[in-house]
């Protein structure tokens, strides 16, 4: 089945090119066409440009496209974007895990940096908690693949995801109401609107409620498991006192009260509730069912067009978040391996940009500043040892960067792009870790007050990191519709301190870990052909990944050893092609195929017995790096009952991939395909919209995360986390 799906996806991409060639001679010019790379406007280089002209691998999805395919949150990007992993983290309902071209970070613990940057209207979102953004009130989402070190800075070694919201209508009031009901008693409600107060001032906002029963059940407590209870909102005020000045003040908040996801035991242990539940969404967890994640932020954007050449822009933002969560790692009623945790973070960012554009030179230069603190505490309750390991700490970060990106039109067809960024990060980390007698909560998490029986870690250290990240590209317009490019870029992820570090088992943890870097080489071809029936973007890339940071945890005598090491290096190469093809006036095909080959050149692992580092690169693989990813969808547009009907069947494919660097046949995910179908009808007045969306129609069971705590001490706790089962949702929307 999966081999068949992969073949079909590759054939679909090839068919797109061949079919367009066959139809090129008789294809009439059409007034209404699917969006092409000539039409799509992106801000990948911090200025609005046609996608065709940007020498960067970018997938851009409009609000209309996301609505047409029934995308509810940004994890839907994974299905339609080649070589991308965008999914909900282990144990949470709103924490984001992102990988692009095999580079990312799946550990959401405070102090660890993501490998894929997330931006909401150019505001950097530093922490993954609450970052599974629901899709509403947006203009488009852009996925930038490959290191974005020059313009987007630290922690974009894999790429960046840009969530771009819509500007308010300056002329007339608007109101949209939407409701949806679906499988597992899903009830989604949305209200969004705006209104002009004067001809210069307008206000707008949106509030959304997402509720759903669990896909499974906690068979121990009777609570819902994999449920959803999210309330999100956004308010903005836009002020345009003159034609060349613009101000936007925006506030957003997300509150997630969904039950914790404890996972599914993948192999049987010993004792009551240690069997393998029949449904992959069920658990026997005994730690509890209380969970709350709250994130919010406020931003002020100011833009002034000084003249026809220069524009200055300021983006000021403050964000904060709090998490109170539980994960029962052993998935049994007993506290064999229970982890209650609290996280807290806040960040202030300020960015100034100066944008300029002349006949031959366009670009941006600026300065970025970040001041943030991430902190938290968690307990590792280990009944078989009769103890709890309490861990707490914080990381304070100050970062400042200077950046520029310039495009020079050497000729009418030949363009040179040059970019650079210099970043300085100052970090202070505090880590406390201690054993307390009794397998109950420690004093750090509100447990009985008692002194530790063994102090494992207690240090405060500071470190500074700096990095120069250049970028260069050369692009050539082979015609008005086809552009080719070659580029080099460098990515950088900051160093830091291991918040789980155990100074008894790994004494070097007090020194922290160093930054990692990626050197990326890419060639691409993008554009449109055959009277714009075919729109495509393609790329070949090669990455050299140095000083790679890898987080691993292994059971050890008296506790769990955590490693965050600069393990060594790896190399990647791959290819991507995506696009759309207008087959007839009513039928359009969308396709995306990604290929990725990755291998560790060096992987240094600390041996707890010999207390030496050993190269075990022949035993490890890159996590979340499937060799093949693909998407193929057909959209039929026609007139039905006087309105417009869009029918979109689609299939997405992901090849085998490993959950961690160490392959595990019990936890790793085999290749799978997801089949979706959406039907959307809009009435002649364009006010009423009715939608029917089927997701995972073949009811595929597939893991999106795992934990591996094998051994008798932790009751062989191998835990898997699964993506959604088959669901069907109906929606009704009305625009005033």
UniProtKB/TrEMBL annotation:
UniProt keywords, alphabetically: Cell outer membrane, Ion transport, Iron, Iron transport, Membrane, Receptor, Signal, TonB box, Transmembrane, Transmembrane beta strand, Transport
Does the record bear 4Fe-4S in its keywords? no
**Annotated ranges, domain TonB-dependent receptor plug:** 51-160
PROSITE patterns xrefs = TONB_DEPENDENT_REC_3
Gene3D superfamilies referenced in this protein's UniProt entry, alphabetically: TonB-dependent receptor, beta-barrel domain
Q: Which CDD domains match?
A: ligand_gated_channel (cd01347)
In terms of Pfam families, this protein maps to:
Plug, TonB_dep_Rec_b-barrel
Q: How does it sit in the membrane?
A: Multi-pass membrane protein
What InterPro entries does the annotation carry?
Beta-barrel_TonB, Beta-barrel_TonB_sf, Plug_dom, TonB-dep_rcpt-like
By sequence similarity, the record places it as follows: Belongs to the TonB-dependent receptor family.
PANTHER family for this protein: FERRICHROME IRON RECEPTOR-RELATED, TONB-DEPENDENT OUTER MEMBRANE RECEPTOR
Instruction: List the protein's name.
Output: TonB-dependent receptor
Q: Which organism is it from?
A: Brevundimonas guildfordensis
């Amino acid at each position: 089945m999966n081999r068949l799906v992969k073949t079909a996806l590759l054939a679909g991409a090839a068919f797109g090119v061949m079919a367009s060639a066959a139809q090129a001679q008789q294809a009439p010019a059409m007034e209404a066409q699917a969006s092409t790379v000539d039409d799509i406007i992106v801000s990948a280089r911090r200025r609005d440009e046609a996608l065709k002209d940007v020498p960067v691998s970018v997938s851009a999805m409009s609000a209309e496209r996301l609505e047409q395919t029934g995308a509810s949150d940004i994890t839907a990007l994974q299905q339609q974007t080649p070589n991308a992993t965008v999914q909900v983290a282990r144990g949470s309902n709103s924490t984001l895990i992102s990988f692009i071209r095999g580079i990312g970070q799946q550990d959401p613990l405070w102090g660890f940096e993501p490998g894929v940057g997330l931006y909401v209207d150019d505001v950097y979102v530093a922490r993954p908690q609450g970052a599974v953004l629901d899709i509403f009130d947006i203009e488009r989402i852009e996925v930038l693949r490959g290191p974005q070190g020059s313009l987007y800075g630290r922690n974009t070694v894999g790429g960046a995801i840009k969530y771009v919201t819509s500007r308010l209508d300056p002329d007339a009031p608007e109101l949209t109401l939407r409701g949806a009901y679906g499988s597992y008693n899903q009830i989604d409600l949305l209200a969004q609107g705006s209104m002009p107060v004067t001809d210069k001032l307008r206000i707008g906002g949106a509030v959304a409620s997402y509720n759903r029963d669990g896909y499974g059940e906690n068979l121990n407590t009777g609570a819902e498991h994999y449920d959803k209870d999210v309330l999100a909102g956004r308010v903005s005020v836009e002020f345009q006192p003159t034609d060349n000045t613009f101000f936007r003040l925006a506030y957003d908040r997300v509150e997630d009260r969904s039950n914790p996801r404890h996972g599914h035991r993948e192999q049987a242990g010993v004792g009551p509730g240690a069997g393998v539940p029949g449904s992959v969404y069920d658990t026997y967890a005994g730690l509890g069912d209380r969970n709350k994640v709250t994130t919010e932020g406020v931003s002020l954007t100011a833009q002034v067009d000084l003249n026809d050449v220069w524009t200055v822009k300021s983006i000021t933002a403050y964000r904060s978040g709090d998490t109170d969560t539980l994960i029962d790692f052993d998935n049994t009623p007993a506290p064999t391996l229970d982890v209650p945790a609290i996280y807290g973070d806040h960040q202030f960012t300020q960015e100034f940009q100066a944008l300029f554009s002349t006949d031959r030179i366009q670009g941006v230069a600026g300065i970025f500043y970040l001041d943030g603190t991430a902190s938290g505490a968690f307990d590792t309750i280990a009944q078989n040892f009769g103890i709890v390991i309490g861990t707490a700490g914080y990381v304070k970060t100050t970062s400042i960067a200077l950046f520029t990106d310039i495009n020079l039109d050497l000729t009418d067809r030949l363009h040179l792009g040059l970019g650079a960024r210099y970043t300085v990060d100052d970090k202070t980390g505090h880590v406390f870790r201690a054993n307390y007698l009794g397998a109950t909560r420690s004093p750090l998490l509100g447990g009985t007050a008692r002194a530790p029986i063994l102090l494992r870690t207690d240090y405060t250290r500071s470190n500074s990191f700096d990095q120069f990240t250049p970028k260069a590209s050369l692009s050539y317009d082979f015609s008005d519709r086809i552009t080719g490019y070659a580029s080099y870029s460098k990515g950088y992820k900051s160093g830091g301190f291991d918040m789980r570090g155990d100074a008894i088992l790994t004494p070097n943890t007090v020194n922290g870990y160093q930054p990692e870097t990626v050197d990326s080489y890419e060639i691409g071809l993008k554009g449109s052909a055959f009277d714009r029936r075919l729109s495509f973007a393609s790329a070949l890339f090669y990455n050299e990944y140095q000083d790679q940071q890898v987080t691993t945890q292994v059971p050890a005598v008296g506790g769990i050893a955590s490693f965050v090491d600069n393990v060594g290096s790896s190399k990647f190469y791959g290819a991507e092609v995506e696009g759309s093809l207008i087959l007839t006036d009513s039928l359009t095909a969308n396709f995306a195929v990604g290929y990725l080959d990755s291998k560790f050149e060096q992987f240094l692992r600390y041996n707890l017995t010999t207390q030496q580092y050993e190269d075990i690169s022949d035993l490890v693989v890159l996590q979340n790096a499937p060799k093949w990813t693909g998407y193929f969808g057909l959209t039929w547009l026609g007139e039905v009952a006087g309105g417009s009907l869009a029918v979109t069947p689609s299939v997405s494919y992901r090849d085998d991939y490993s959950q961690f660097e160490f392959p595990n046949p019990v936890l790793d995910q085999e290749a799978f395909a997801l089949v979706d179908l959406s039907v959307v009808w809009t009435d002649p007045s364009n006010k009423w919209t009715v939608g029917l969306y089927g997701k995972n129609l073949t009811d595929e069971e597939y893991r999106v995360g795992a934990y591996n705590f094998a051994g008798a001490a932790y009751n062989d706790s191998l835990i898997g986390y699964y993506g959604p089962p088959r669901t069907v949702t109906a929606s009704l929307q009305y625009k005033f």
